[in-house]
Amino acid sequence: xxxxxxxxxxxxxxxxxxxxxxxxxxxxxxxxxxxxxxxxxxxxxxxxxxxxxxxxxxxxxxxxxxxxxxxxxxxxxxxxxxxxxxxxxxxxxxxxxxxxxxxxxxxxxxxxxxxxxxxxxxxxxxxxxxxxxxxxxxxxxxxxxxxxxxxxxxxxxxxxxxxxxxxxxxxxxxxxxxx
Length: 179
Hints:
Elements: E1 2-8, H1 14-25, E2 36-44, E3 47-56, E4 59-67, H2 70-87, H3 89-93, H4 102-109, E5 132-133, H5 135-144, E6 149-154, E7 160-165, E8 171-174
Helix pairs in contact: 1-2
């Protein structure tokens, strides 16, 4: 895995980078050598946020944690990432490299047992009218229907986009791209 770091309002020490590499090393069995890992550390007053994004073979895992201590936030991110992998175990088993199994990783991570989901269940299908609108109009419509996301045809690019509400109250836009 290739790890890149971004530090916001902080200078990362080498011992923190070594700790990140040690914690993420247990995921080497699952992700390929070409996997890109982006670690963002942000410090604001008495809270420190660690974000980890892993991109590998069109799969994206993103975790974020805010704690008073940077190392605690890192530990929490690794725990969340392990749970995400466990949840998607059946899909990931097809991608595991030879020499290890997902069960080895989960045992090594010492995560408590969770009930395993057998399959995803679609409980509702909805058709949407895609009319070209701007991002601002899409956010307005999303807020009017009190949803956390909204699919729309972007009037500027003429492509399907999704606007969504982030945990901090800001908004994001998902745009299509080629891998």
